[in-house]
């Protein structure tokens, strides 16, 4: 007997309405034995980029299964619904850039299909609620063993919509980055990795000049929050392997006056390049 796969679920629906419950109810009716793991339903409304980042940084820690993601401001338009298969995972959602970064983090896309088989969807498909009527039932059928090839026609993986890659490079002593995310603690995740900081000639225990929000800040580069005094800025590597700007016990996003997508520049304090 084919084991029932777990299903993970990410949306921008929030929990004030019944949208999440309706989707989970559809999955439960089709695949009552499937375990559903909620990643989050608090993606900012319509923020595809935030949803894509959350998927890419979370799915590598989840068991092989079916992953449903719905951040879909284009619902009901000509945008496609798709299934993306990696070596061990199945990703279901809109073709708007939400899924490819996560597929990359899971080893890359093996196959892609357009969702086009009405037998795997609800009998009546609303133009404004594909999460309930298309993505949830397709995911539940996949979890119970329906082959990916049955969801619809196969697609060229290169035809999937991709978001622009974040700015992340070092040039002549300056690291150019952008704010990827701001979490609920106010920690600011940048698009740079440890290799970029080393390229700047900075090791842990050193410091960085950080240009953000119109100001330049001297920021120590340490291992964790408690390596600086309460209320002080500190740069560190976060749990996803990215450089993060944080305040010990405080809100770095507010202190630096930055939001996701904002540019940030980093330099060694003694680089002599000055503020740009």
TrEMBL record:
Chain ranges of the S-adenosyl-l-methionine hydroxide adenosyltransferase C-terminal domain: 178-265
UniProt xrefs under SUPFAM superfamilies: Bacterial fluorinating enzyme, C-terminal domain (SSF101852), Bacterial fluorinating enzyme, N-terminal domain (SSF102522)
InterPro entries, per database record: SAM_HAT_C (IPR046470), SAM_HAT_N (IPR046469), SAM_OH_AdoTrfase (IPR002747), SAM_OH_AdoTrfase_C_sf (IPR023227), SAM_OH_AdoTrfase_N_sf (IPR023228)
S-adenosyl-l-methionine hydroxide adenosyltransferase N-terminal domain residues: 7-152
Entry keyword set: S-adenosyl-L-methionine
Gene3D superfamilies, alphabetized: Bacterial fluorinating enzyme like, S-adenosyl-l-methionine hydroxide adenosyltransferase, N-terminal
The family this protein is said to belong to: Belongs to the SAM hydrolase / SAM-dependent halogenase family.
Protein name: SAM-dependent chlorinase/fluorinase
Species the sequence originates in: Yinghuangia aomiensis
Lineage: Bacteria, Bacillati, Actinomycetota, Actinomycetes, Kitasatosporales
